[in-house]
Amino acid sequence: MKLRRELLTARGNLSPEQLRVNAVKVRETLLDQPWAQMAGLVACYWSTGAEPETHGLVFALWKHGATVILPVLRENDDLDWAVYDGPDTLAPGRFGIMEPVDTRRGVDAIRTAALVIVPALAVDRKSGVRLGRGGGSYDRALARVGPNVPTVALLHDGELIDDVPAEPHDQRVRWAVTPRELTRLM
Ligand SMILES: Nc1ncnc2c1ncn2[C@@H]1O[C@H](COP(=O)(O)OP(=O)(O)O)[C@@H](O)[C@H]1O
Ligand SMILES: [Mg+2]
Predict the structure, then answer these.
(1) What is the CATH number of the domain that holds 51?
(2) What keywords does the record list, in alphabetical order (predicted)?
């Protein structure tokens, strides 16, 4: 899809310094929210490449006493979940993405999260429709999340856009965080 390619190219042009600055802003914005501070079980992701960086965020949530679960990518592209227990408890999984070495809690572990933080290439500012990298993993995971749980996509500036194409299986997120702002979507 052309839109995915354009978004990935723009991400590829972000400097390491810009990525660091973005990560701090996104983390601070999110951790300022009472509903984020109070979540006892948080489903997050371990960022890779030019994705909005989550390593500091995961560490901060964990340090503040939350239980953080991170995805373990299954062969069928569905997401299993395992508990993060500090920086030394991750090992490369499929595609070299770091995953917790802890016991897998199953694809339904996300159902019990009080806060769900997901990656996205873009989010539709009107509908909250989320564009992923094309594997559909988070469409499956988000379909298991209850209606009252805050679901948050982390973005770089310029990735909260109009007219994200959506198919019936595409899931929406309720919040988007960019380095500039936090937006309630639905
Ligand atoms: N709930 C689901 N169950 C099974 N397969 C799904 C589901 N949601 C999405 N998929 C699969 O994932 C593929 C990619 O989805 P897509 O929305 O294009 O990716 P992404 O959301 O990662 O950008 C879909 O074509 C579909 O086959
Ligand atoms: Mg999708």
Answers:
(1) 3.40.50.10420
(2) ATP-binding, Ligase, Magnesium, Metal-binding, Nucleotide-binding
Give the DSSP H or E segment for 177.
Answer: strand 175-177
Phi, psi at 33, each rounded to 5°: -85, 125
Query: What pLDDT, in 10s, does the model give residues 79-129?
Result: 999 999 998 999 999 989 999 999 999 999 999 999 999 999 999 999 999
User: Which residues hold their Cβ within 5 A of ligand 2, which is an ion?
Assistant: 132, 139, 170
Q: Which atom of ligand 1 is nearest to the CA of 4?
A: 23
Whole-angstrom CA distances from 118 to 15, 17, 45, 69, 124 are 22, 22, 6, 12, 15
Q: Is 170 in the pocket of ligand 1 (CB under 6 A)?
A: yes
In which domain, by residue range, is 100 found? 2-184
The response to whether residue 168 sits with its C-beta less than 6 Å from ligand 1 reads: no
* Cβ-Cβ contacts under 8 Å for 107 (sequence gap 6 or more): 74, 78, 79, 80, 81, 140, 141, 144
Q: How many domains does the chain have?
A: 1
Quickly state the pLDDT bin for 37 (edges 50, 70, 90): very high
Q: What percent of the chain has pLDDT over 90?
A: 97
Q: What is the pLDDT of residue 87?
A: 85
Nearest to 153 by CA among 130, 185, 176: 176
Distance CA 133, CA 49 (A): 13
